Amino acid sequence: xxxxxxxxxxxxxxxxxxxxxxxxxxxxxxxxxxxxxxxxxxxxxxxxxxxxxxxxxxxxxxxxxxxxxxxxxxxxxxxxxxxxxxxxxxxxxxxxxxxxxxxxxxxxxxxxxxxxxxxxxxxxxxxxxxxxxxxxxxxxxxxxxxxxxxxxxxxxxxxxxxxxxxxxxxxxxxxxxxxxxxxxxxxxxxxxxxxxxxxxxxxxxxxxxxxxxxxxxxxxxxxxxxxxxxxxxxxxxxxxxxxxxxxxxxxxxxxxxxxxxxxxxxxxxxxxxxxxxxxxxxxxxxxxxxxxxxxxxxxxxxxxxxxxxxxxxxxxxxxxxxxxxxxxxxxxxxxxxxxxxxxxxxxxxxxxxxxxxxxxxxxxxxxxxxxx
Length: 372
Known about the structure:
Keywords: Amino-acid transport, Signal, Transport
Helix content: 40-55%
Oligomer: single chain
Protein name: Branched-chain amino acid ABC transporter substrate-binding protein
Organism: Uliginosibacterium flavum
Order of helices and strands: HEHEEHEHEEHEHEHEHEHEHHHEEEE
InterPro entries: Leu-bd (IPR028081), Leu_Ile_Val-bd (IPR000709), Peripla_BP_I (IPR028082)
CATH class of the largest domain: Alpha Beta
Largest sheet: 7 strands, mixed
Number of strands: 15
Shape: elongated
Family: Belongs to the leucine-binding protein family.
Radius of gyration: 23 Å
Structural class: alpha/beta
Strand content: 15-25%
Strand order of the largest sheet: 8-7-9-10-11-14-15
């Protein structure tokens, strides 16, 4: 009888230990870790890693098991074809959710892979409206889209800066062209004239032919839809041609890297918009900035806080559903309403963030300063 009691106790202890055993849950991340905008991809990856470290430090239990989150990061090179390969690789690896991709050109094709797999994906930075207009059930975004960003820029440019003639250039990526098209339409609605519409690509470094053509049209402003790797030499060559036009851009150029690349060319005639609000205005921005710098010995480039919130949203949805399985926690993700670093995280029926702000920045004293 005594032996039976001992045996029973050992069985119960074993069951208890099994119930409390660690379960490793992989979260996928996808973005450019090599190439001209690798600094933005790595910035975001660090934001995700910080969110996972915070979650693991809390000792989260889901479904009776203590969860250890693990990051599986893939380099999509900001390339559409590579992005679909990377997406399938993450699906095959058994990740339970994905934070990515960084660019719209990568997110849109990759989203089809995630939809077919039923795997939730939250982009921290892809702003093309097309992404969430596809009707997919697993695609979400924690940042404002291009339509909101273009409208904000057009209003400021026309009503505050008094710009009436604008030339528009884009890099023909889903992000660059989408934002440029949206801006051109918004400017026209406000009575401004689009005097030139040119395009390049996201690998170009020589813009002299385009700029010489636009110089003859004497625009008040030139808008570039693209990233800082091309925006910096474009601005430099614009000034070399003696053009005094105001230079406008979106969040792809609203980076600390742009401040380094174009230190000699940046002045009070340069403006950019950024989806979201300034870090010092974010509910958790000041603390996040301090922690990020301490952890990685560097400044936030652009999207790290949004990556942090995207990763946290996946984890909070799993907690709410008491399951790490995508099919079970997806309803909780749709209904999610939490306070993040960047603001309230809650999604509309399409998967867009409900409260996506936009900020207009000007250049002053070596940094981007929120103008409105």
